[in-house]
Write the C-alpha cells for this entry.
Amino acid sequence: MTAEAVATPAAAPPAGLNARAASWAVGAVVVVTVVVLLVCLVPALRHWMILPVTVCGVLVAPDVIDWARKRLDVFDPQAVVALMGMHFFFLAPILHVVMDYWPRYEPPADDWFVALGRMAAVNVAGLLVYRAVLARPDPRPRISLDRVARGRVLLVGSLVLLAGFAAFVAFTAKFGGIGGYVDYMTSADRDLTGYGITVVASSSFPFVAFMMALVLWPDVFRRARWLLVLLLLAFVAIQLLAGGLRGSRAGVIWPLLIAIGMCHLLVAPVRRRVLLGSLVAILGFMYVYGFYKSVGRDAIDIFTGMRTVDELSTETGRDLPVLLLGDLGRADIQALTLERVHADTAQLRYGATYLGDIAALLPGELVVGIPDKVHAGTDMLYGTGSYDAGNRSSRVYGLTGEAMLNFGVVGAVVAFLPFAWLVRWSRACHRRAQGPDGSLGLRVLAAVLPMALVVMLTSDLDNVIWFLANHVAVVVAVVLLARRR
C-alpha cells in the first residue's frame, strides 16, 4: 500500500442554502434563549453590554450548529475556530459578570460593564468582516505535497528524532538531570534566552515519533484501535517529560490536539464525543498543571494526599475562573486595552510590538532598543513611563488586543480580515485533504492548521511564532524533505 492510500473521513457535503439558514436560525434561538435565562437568573446581566455580546454569539453560533449537525467535519478549521469563538466572544464576557471575576493585578476599568460592552461592539464589527470573507467560495489551494514517500518519511523522521532526543538529553544534563531541570524550569528567575533552538529541538522528538508511527503503519492502528489508544497515552507521557516539565502547558496540549487530528486524517475518523471527552480531560490537566507551574514538584502533593486541591488553589491563586477566563479568555484584558485606547491614555505603537515579537527570535545583543509587547503593554496598563520605572506586564492580548495596542479600534476590526482569509484557506486545505486527491503530505499539514488558527485568535504574534517553531516547523520540514525528487 502506498503512503497516500490511507483511510480518511469523507468530506462534508456542500452546505445547502436552506440547511445553512436553519443553522443560523437554530443558533440564534439557542443563543437568545441562553441569554434570556441568564438575565432572569443573574440581575447583574441586566445591562446594555449583554446586547452586543449576544450578537457576537449569534454570529459565531451557525458554525457550531453545523458542527453538531455533522455538516462540518470534526476537525474542520472553521468549526474548530467557532467552538473556541463561542467561549471567546460570547461565554467569557458573560462569565466575567456571573463570577464577578476581574484582573487582580492591573488597575481596573472605570466601569467593567461598559468596557465589556464596547469591546463586544468592536468584536461585532470584526465578526461581520469575518463572516463576509468566509461567505466567499473556497480557494483552490496550490499546495499539494503529493510526492511524499513513506520510505523517505522513515529516513528523514529518524534523523530528526535522533537529533531531538540528543538535544533533550544534553539539555537536561546541563541542569544536573531531570530533578535539577524541573527545579530550574519552575523557578521564578529562570531565563531561557539563547536556548530557543535547543528547547524546540528537545521537545519535538515525541511528536515526530508519533507522526512516523501513523504514517508507516496506518492499517495496523486501523485494525487494532486499542493500539492507537496506547500509542496516544505513551505519546502524552513522553511529551509531558520532554515539553511539559519546563512549565509549558502548551508543550503538551497543542501536540496532543494535533496528534488527535492526525489520527482523524491518517488512520480513522475521530467521533465528536471522543473529541469533547478529550477536551474535558485537557481542561482538567490545565487546572492541575497550573499548580505545577506555580509551585513546581510540590504539586505532586495532591496525588500523595499531603495537600488538597483547595489548599493549593488558595496558596497559588489558581481557581476555575482563572482557568476559564484568564487562560482561555481575553475579554477582560481586551476591554481594558480598548478603554485605555479610547481615553487616549495609551500610546499607539503602529506595529512596534509586532516588530518586537519577530525580533525576539534574534540573539539578545541584536535586539537592544527594539520596543516590544511587554514595554507597550506595561505602559498601557500602568501609565506611560511605568516600564522605565521597573514595572513589567506579560499579559497576552490576543489577535484583536495586540492589534489595538498598535493601531487602535480600526486595527482591531481590520485584524479579522487576514485571520478570516487564513481560516478560509485552511478550510479549503482540510477539505481537499479529505477528498480523493488528498495526498499524504497535505493530510499531515491539514492536521496542524485548526490548532494554529486557535493560537492566532487567542494569542499574540510572539506566541504564534513560538507555536509555529515548536509544532509546525518540524512537521513541514519532515514533509518537505520526504518528497520524492
Remarks:
- The chain is about 70% helix and 0% strand.
- The chain has one domain: 1-8+147-485.
- The two ends are 20 Å apart (CA to CA).
